[in-house]
Amino acid sequence: MKERGSFFVVPGIVWVLLFTIFPLVYSFRVSLSRVAYGRITGFAGLANYARMFQDYRFWGVLGFTLIFVIFSVAITVSLGLLLALVFNRKMRGLRFFRALMTTPLFTAPVALGYLGVMMFYEENGPINILLQTLGFSKVPWLSDIFWARTAVIMVDVWQWTPFAFIILLAGLQSLPDEVYEAAVLDTSSGWDIFRYITFPMISPVLGTVIMLRLVDAFKVFDIPFALTNGGPGTATRTLTFYVYTQGLRNFDLGYASAMAYFLMFMSLAVGIFFFRRYRSLYE
Amino acid sequence: MKRSSILLVVALAVVLVLTWSFLALAQEETSELELQTAEAAFQAADKGNPDPAWQGQKFTIGVYSAGPRGAISGPLYFWRPFFEKLTGATYDIVEIPFGELREKIFTDLMTGTGYYDVIIGPSWFYGDYVSNGWIVPIDKYFDDPRMPKWDRDSILLPIRELLQWKGTWYGFNNDHDGQVLYYRRDILTDPKWQELFKQEKGYDLPVPPRTWEEVYDVCDFFNGKDWNGDGEKDYGITMHLKVGGQGFFHFMALSAPYVVSPAPGDDPTKVTRYHNVYWFDPETMEPLVDTPGFVEALKMLLKLSKTGPSAMWGWSLGEAWDAFLRGKAVLTFSWGDVGSLSQLPESSNIKGKLGVAPIPGSEKYYDLETQQWVNQRNFVANTVGASWHGVISKFSKKQDLAAYFLSWQATPEINHWNVVWGWTGIDPGTLYDLLKPTGYADIEDYVQTGYDAEDARQFVTAYEEMWYKYPLRQAYLRIPGTPEYWEVWDIHLSEAVVGQVSPEEALRRTKEDWNAITDRLGRENQKKIYQEAIGYVPEK
User: Fold this and answer.
1) Cα dihedral sign for B227, B228, B229, B235?
2) Are B289 and B511 in contact (CB under 8 A)?
3) Chain B contact for A60 (CB, 8 A cutoff)
4) Contact B132/A231, CB-based, under 8 Å?
5) Residue B5, pLDDT above cutoff 90
6) Are B467 and B154 in contact (CB under 8 A)?
7) B113 shares contact with chain A (CB less than 8 Å)
8) Is residue B298 a contact partner of residue B255, using CB atoms and an 8 Å limit?
9) CB atoms within 10 A of CB B186
10) Which region is the signal sequence (chain B) (predicted)?
11) Tally of CB atoms within 10 A around B469
12) pLDDT digits (tens, 9 = 90+) for A105-158
């Protein structure tokens, strides 16, 4: 019986070997190789890794990637939490609003990127028209470094805030009413209730949301690709975008693999550090 | 009937109605005149002797994606029923977005998959195509009795050379790209503006502007004035400067007269180490991109970019063209598409007001040999752009059928039909597109399809003048890795345009990156291919 049970694990093992372990090992080999037109032409040692440290473009894209991760995750989670707190009450039409709020989540990021091109269009785009109607001047959304970065982050926030909202709302709704009933007897301050009761109690959910968003933000590609194509200059080029360009456009697969490994270890390091800190704070 | 069944029926009906509507719309776009003239071209074109064995066969074409009525891919859809009638064979059209052409096509060729029998791609792939042996020479088809005859000598020389490698033909005639200057003829010839221009700039308004310095003055003068009378400020120039928006082609065309210098002696077009070179020193493969000619040109591009909407730093082709076609910019420089689009009422309100001139020159050029500026006007023709045309994959199993299709599309009648119908994106570049007496075409060919006569005359004559009468030509880069060289250039130019780095730094970075690419791909091999591509014979 036990042997028969093991048999059912085989497809899972094959799947992991084929689609996770093999690509991981193979891409590591490629990262240590010289590659021309998709074919390994020789051993490069650590040259591809060393190249990263001399490549100013690599540091540029890494810088924007970190800016993107920090701002996108912080704003997404804060807004998601705020909305979850607002919607965490009995109100008419709650289900409708909740469904409406989550629609950006179901859109392909690349489609949102192209939608962003229209929304942020500088000459007669709806956002600039709205700003001008309100008495502001036109914003150079896609042609200025600062505003292009802002636009990319805004589109990402637009897409992922509903995700944070839904998870955090579920977390809030699972909190026991008795605790709040008792707390109301001790204080009338909503802020105190949030600070000392709600926030600590939803922290595990919050930690999960932040972790998932961090992993996802490090991988961002579609939105800058569609919205700004990494420009102006290289202002909105992310690390994954650079890996894609070097690997699949220029077929410089050795260097692309080395950078992909760097990204993987960086994401892992950030994840492990975050979880350890979080666990030490709330366990 | 259950509720779910009713819903299913309703949904099906909606889908059918929508499909029918789209098909009806698509059919409406093809006019009766188009069909009549296409039928006439079909009848007149040589058809060779299609092999009966081709009946029922199918091949696949990979092409730049612009849809069934869009540039380059559109004619493939249009002519497919004619081809089926002619041969009993057919083809699938696989549209590939511009940004993905390289990875899709090169991956197919690198892996030997052979998914695409025919690639209708850009000319900058030739270095990779030929050095890797990915495409087949086509000379053997010229005397094949099955193949329709096309007139290779009619293709204007700068374009003809793009279809060959060391004298061997690889590409079939189709599209012909080069950038020319488009301006508002009605505005520049208006006495009111001419007088104001003279007052402000101190000399007569040049119609058309012949050098970039004059172009700048014109754009600077008109920028910020309401010259079209719509109550809003209008612009001097419009360009597409977004990264990946093909802005580097603007710089390529603009910089050529500052960089390319004539050879001393009897033949100014002779390629020497220092003359008629643009990309690299052919002896060392050291990039020339940071030499003073390029720096001066980039400063001019930046100056020009201040005479248009700042939004154009984030614009691709469509947006930049649209600003000119809607009458918001007095001037632009671009490919033949602007000329044909300006005649379409749905995309333009400047029909009958179009002026076209060959690409401007410069007031001076930098001589690489003497390392001195020469204060003399310099005019250099360009073939910047893709000149989209068909090649046959080495891995195709249907090479003969593919060659038949491409030969048939290259015949004067079919090719000229594509040129005169602007929506096809096929731009003029053969003698049968040029007007008599230089060429064989009549202005009526163009007027019949909706062109304004004077617009058409200016449009075609500008190409004639540039490709026939300009003293010098800018070499096209056709070495392995060309797309990568251009991509990093595009990025660094954008960095300079938005002020991320100085012009000198942008070009220095480009040089550094180009050297890295050259070293990675093998400097000696790159040098050999570059010398072949530009026709440089090393001096002993």
Assistant:
1) negative
2) yes
3) no
4) no
5) no
6) no
7) no
8) yes
9) 16
10) 1-26
11) 11
12) 888 999 999 999 999 998 889 999 999 999 999 999 998 999 999 999 999 999
Residues A249, B483: C-beta atoms closer than 8 Å = yes
Task: Please state, in angstroms and rounded to a whole number, the distance separating the CA atoms of residues B185 and B207.
Answer: 8
CA-to-CA separations, A235 to A152, A231, A239, A246, A263, in angstroms, rounded: 11, 5, 12, 17, 19
Per-chain mean pLDDT for chain B: 93
**Min Cα separation A120/chain B (Å):** 11
- Read off the pLDDT of residues A184-210 as tens digits, 9 standing for 90 and up: 887 768 888 888 889 989 988 999 999
In one-letter notation, the amino acid at residue B472 is L
Longest dimension (CA), chain A: 75
ipTM for the predicted complex: 0.81
Written as six digits, the tokens of B391 are 């090649």
Distance CA(B534)–CA(B288), nearest Å, equals 15
Please answer whether residues B348 and B323 qualify as being in contact, where contact means their C-beta atoms are separated by less than 8 angstroms.
Answer: no
CB B309 to CB A245 under 8 A? no
Cα A174 from Cα A12, distance rounded (Å):
33
Q: Would the CB atoms of A122 and B497 count as touching at under 8 Å?
A: no
pLDDT in tens, A161-175: 999 999 999 999 999
Tokens of B468: 């026939």
Q: Which candidate from B103, B110, B500 shows the least CB-CB separation from A37?
A: B110
Pair type for strands B58-64 and B90-96? parallel
Q: Of how many residues is chain A composed?
A: 283
pLDDT-derived band at B26 (thresholds 50, 70, 90) equals very low
The answer to whether B351 and B358 are in contact (CB under 8 A) is: no
**Of A262, A270, A272, A271, which Cα lies nearest the Cα of A239?**
A262
| Contact list, B500 vs chain A (CB under 8 Å) | 145, 232-235
Per-residue confidence band for B219, with pLDDT thresholds at 50, 70 and 90: very high
